[in-house]
Amino acid sequence: MHQLQAIPFGQPALQLKDVIPGAIHALKPSLFAGVSAFSGANIPPSSHVIVLLIDGLGEIQLQEFGPNLLLSGSCVDTPMHTQFPSTTPVALGSLGTGQSPGQHGFVGASFYVPEEDALFSPLQWGSDPHPLAMIPTAPLFEWASASGIDVGSIAREEYRSSGITKSVLRGGVYLGSADLADTERIVRDRIAHARTPALTYVYWPELDRLGHVHGPGSHPWLAQLRLVDAFVSRIAGVIAKDARSDISLVITSDHGMVLCPPGRRINIESHSVLAPDVRWVAGDPRARHIYTRPGSGPDVAARWRDVLGQDFDVVTRVDLADDGYFPYLDPDFSERLGDFMVIARSDALLASTSDSRSSSFLGQHGSMSVGEMRIPFRVFHSGANG
Questions:
Q1: pTM of the predicted protein model
Q2: What is the DSSP letter of 195?
Q3: For residue range 197-239, what is the model confidence (pLDDT) as tens digits?
Q4: Which CATH number fits domain 262-364: 3.40.50.720, 3.30.1360.180, 1.20.1250.20, 3.30.365.10?
Q5: I need a surface site. Which of 274, 288, 322, 341 has the fewest CB within 10 A?
Q6: Alpha helices in the chain (DSSP H)
């Protein structure tokens, strides 16, 4: 068993949810007038903030496999963590709203929605349920745009009409891109022509895809990391050429990734002790929401603890709320949590027929290890305040 170091609750203060509030504050601090304790990332006063989110790039992997890259420079003293569970829809929900998962309601890669009486997977979300009905508050991009900030989002064209885009990332103009070269062209155009103050969000997914299939640190993963680093270097060079530009380039991610060998997979549905009385399996292979048949929850959780031992923590719904796993949990979202969650403490995972493809990946995330939770926070700034 390979045990992984876990992130303690409450540390550090800086989280992914603080990035966009920090960017907006850097652009227009007057919007936060009267806020007694501003909670946001420390970004210098700027006329334009570009936030690049590199899906799947953990701080631990960056330091291990790319210590000489530009991405590894410009270190910020305070480390940044993503939200738990450490998975893309949860992270994007927090990035887009500035809220914790218990507040915005995306509590896993998939989860039960009582009003639909069905499992819900945000990454496969189109128009049902209606995106405007899933999030209780207006997203930050929409608020910034309504407050006079020129907001632009750059991501692949196929994400334009996704439920995540239309719920937590809506606001401003959406600029669809085809590849990294096209993304760079659009970013350069925004640098040259965006009306200030401007906020540009850029999402790049390819490193995550390669990490899942080949594992973090693999040759394809390393090749993609170098491509992204070269892209960042060119954009940093553009903003550095004009000392009057006053542009901040912020680099972050949604989660890191750990390697899970095939021999460390436990198949839920084929296991004679784990499978009985389980109604639904949701979440990530390393952070499962388990929904049981009525009245069977405590007995099922006890059986799972006996079988899984030290590889996993089995945490009941009540303890998930009371022990800080989902801070500020909205009572309306409590039933979205499993009757219990199963959270990996080692390099093991829980495979399921409900997501057989993702269960087969070498690279995984979702749990609370440092490798999954710690993410980069880099700021490159040009101008008088640099």
A1: 0.94
A2: P
A3: 999 999 999 999 999 999 999 999 999 999 999 999 999 999 9
A4: 3.30.1360.180
A5: 322
A6: 19-27, 59-65, 88-97, 101-104, 131-134, 140-146, 163-167, 180-193, 206-214, 219-240, 297-308, 317-322, 356-359, 370-373
